[in-house]
Every structure is written in C-alpha cells, then in structure tokens.
C-alpha cells in the first residue's frame, strides 16, 4: 500500500508507505529526501470515520473527520488540532466520488483545492491504485492537501 505523490509533470514530491494488515492503517509520509513529515492514522473510537495526522513524535497536528452526506462524501479537517485559532478546511465530494473541492471555511469559503479522480486508468484496473489530479490554490501546503486526499481515498475505499 505504498505510492508516490507526483506533480503534474510526473516529478515525485512525497512518498507514502502503508503497512499491510495494520489495524490503524498507519501511513508514513516522507519527502523525497527521506525526511519523515507525518503519519496518517485511522482512529477507531468515533462514530464517523476519523483520521489523525501526527508528527514524527506522534503529536496530533490535524484531524480529518468524515460526516454523513446522503449523496457523495464530506469531511472536515481541523489544524493545528486543539488550538483556539484552528483552521478549518471542508471537503465536499460528488455523488460518485469522481471529484471534490476543499473549501477554506476560515478564509470565507475560498477554494483551497480541487480533486478529480481519473476513472479506470491502467493502474486502477491492474494494480488497484486510483489516480487523482489535484489543483492546489496558491498559499496552501501541498503535503497538507495530499494528506486530506489520502484520508478521503481511505474512507471511500472502506465502503
């Protein structure tokens, strides 16, 4: 369950290592120099699917929590987690989870990123890996948006 996050021109920027058969579904995210940036961990004692983004010392940096939506998917990311001035990003996906927007509620509803899932690519058919195209607005962290996309994908793969 390991993969690379790449720019539109194919340049790898992040490496994600997943542990098979892990109860927490822990995924380690590193930059291309091998520096450990954060882990994505599924938290189990919640009504809604919840992921924690933890720094290498296992301190929670961000929480991504899904919410019920009749058609499509929805999740909210809060960071820094537990801070009184926490930032909130909301993901809203389409009915067939082929696209989503990440809305910055802290900045008046501006679009932080757009996500498009490429359906039935060769990797999806033969290797079970989905391909996403993500457009990130200026001023937003690529690793943070990538973490949110990974959480959305993990949640959608549960269903």
Automatic annotation (TrEMBL):
Belongs to the LOR family. It comes from Pseudopithomyces chartarum. This is DUF567 domain protein. Pfam families: LOR. It comes from the Eukaryota.
């Amino acid at each position: 369950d390991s993969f690379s996050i790449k720019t539109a021109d194919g340049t790898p920027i992040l490496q994600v290592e997943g542990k098979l058969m892990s109860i927490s579904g822990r995924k380690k995210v590193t930059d291309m120099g091998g520096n450990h940036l954060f882990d994505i961990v599924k938290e189990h004692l919640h009504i809604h699917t919840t992921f924690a983004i933890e720094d290498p010392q296992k301190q929670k940096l961000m929480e991504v929590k899904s919410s019920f939506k009749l058609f499509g998917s929805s999740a909210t990311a809060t960071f820094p987690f537990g801070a009184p001035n926490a930032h909130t990003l909301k993901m809203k996906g389409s009915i067939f989870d082929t696209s989503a927007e990440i809305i910055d509620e802290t900045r008046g509803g501006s679009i932080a990123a757009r996500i498009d899932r490429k359906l039935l690519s060769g990797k999806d058919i033969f290797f079970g890996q989905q391909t996403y195209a993500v457009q990130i607005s200026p001023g937003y962290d690529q690793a943070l948006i990538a973490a949110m996309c990974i959480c959305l994908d993990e949640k959608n793969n549960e269903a």
